[in-house]
């Protein structure tokens, strides 16, 4: 077997504009609404600049509220289907902290914040990350209805399964503001200005 053409590493990172946005914010966001408002702004900007879908996420240190990492969807920019906002934020936090476990003994607990409910892929990523809390803007069908994205075969009792594993779930922070971003994204898709990167054979632009 000739392995000379094999890829041996892959990577994905956040664009410079995300850091520019974060530079305007305090290290500790004052309220839950402030945190979600930041994510909604990042998700809205992300699809407008062609990085990926209208999704963003961040990891916070529980108790202090310190922002550890922020991620946006990078599927189109990286050409890696796994680089959803949650995976990006969790991976960047794990890189910064030098640990795959966001709930490791001797360290602070961590929370994952997202501007909507995780998809089927990110559901697993959250489970294995070690976070103690998930905070989301909403969990209804609006993403699939408005954006044409296929979120995968999610369990109806997904939140209960998180709680059974010790992951607290908070739903409904700035829900309507988050939904408006999905409406804006759909307008871009309908105008041919955005790509829906579903798996082959599903959705729009598949």
TrEMBL record:
Keyword Zinc: yes
Pfam families, per the entry: dCMP_cyt_deam_1 (PF00383)
SUPFAM superfamilies (UniProt xref): Cytidine deaminase-like (SSF53927)
Record's keyword terms, sorted: Metal-binding, Zinc
Span of domain CMP/dCMP-type deaminase: 30-162
Name of this chain's protein: Nucleoside deaminase
